[in-house]
Amino acid sequence: MKTIAQILESKAHEIITIRPSDSVLVALEVLAAYNIGALPVVESGKLVGIFSERDYARKVALKGLTSAVTEVSDIMTGNVHCADLHHSVMDCMALMIDKHIRHLPVMDKDQLVGMLSIGDLVKTIIEDQQFQIQQLESYINPALSLH
């Protein structure tokens, strides 16, 4: 199975972030522009939170706040669960399921090196299963591998 580092290599190398002092409206515009569901919140090079569509829906829209004047820091999730490059795909999947999260920042020591979505992990697991099926079919019937 692919490593976390290999998954990140196959994704865009640019890590899109937002500042805690940016407005929620700016954060929503960035989410829409990049067609993503969450943004790491970074201040002075340090990960300080994560902002997601879920944060907006539950902490702005439902509470009647205004996204143009509300700062990301006011509604971001501050206690961020992260992966590191040494975690396995299954470790990351288990963490995301256990914590009910869809996005996972990936850290290398104190440095943010990427973001994983649950879709990234599901895609990797499916690819691995398809490869294993092909290998088993080839083992069972070597004639199939000639096609």
Category from helices, strands and their pairing: alpha+beta
List segments where confidence is low: pLDDT < 50 over at least 5 consecutive residues: none
One letter per element, helices H and strands E, the order comes to: HHEEHHEHEEH
Distance between the termini: 24 Å
Mean pLDDT: 93
- The CATH level-2 architecture is identified as Roll
Strand order of the largest sheet: 3-4-5
Q: Roughly how much helix do the residues carry, as a percent range?
A: 40-55%
Cα-atom radius of gyration:
19 Å
The largest β sheet comes out as: 3 strands, mixed
β-strand percent reads 15-25%
Judging from the principal axes of the Cα atoms, what is the shape?
elongated
Our count of helices gives: 6
**Record field, number of beta strands:** 5
Query: How many structural domains are formed by the residues?
Result: 1
CATH class annotation: Alpha Beta
User: Might you state the CATH topology name?
Assistant: CBS-domain
The named CATH superfamily: CBS-domain
Provide structural commentary.
The strands form two sheets. The chain has a three-stranded mixed sheet. A two-stranded antiparallel ribbon has the order 1-2. Helix 5 (89-99) links the parallel strand 3 (83-84) and strand 4 (103-108). By secondary structure, it is of the alpha+beta class. It contains six helices and five strands; from the N terminus they run ααββααβαββα. The chain is 44% helix and 19% strand. The model has no long low-confidence stretch (mean pLDDT 93). The two termini are 24 Å apart. It has one domain: Roll (CBS-domain).
